Please model this.
Amino acid sequence: MNDKFLFGVILGMLGGSLIVTNSVKARQTVKNGQKQVLDKAEEVIKNGKKNTSK
Model:
């Protein structure tokens, strides 16, 4: 059963990547999501440095 699950996950990832590469709107959504994650990570790092200096 695990093999079937992993095969399904891999097919889903490949299908999703094909959709994103062929769709401008989906590609833009992915870029925006990546930017939000990076911005949040930078914010967490800055807040972590502020809290450790006290």
Q: What stands out?
A: The two ends are 52 Å apart (CA to CA). Helices lie at 2-22, 24-52. DSSP finds two helices and no strands in the chain. The CA atoms of residues 1 and 33 lie 33 Å apart.
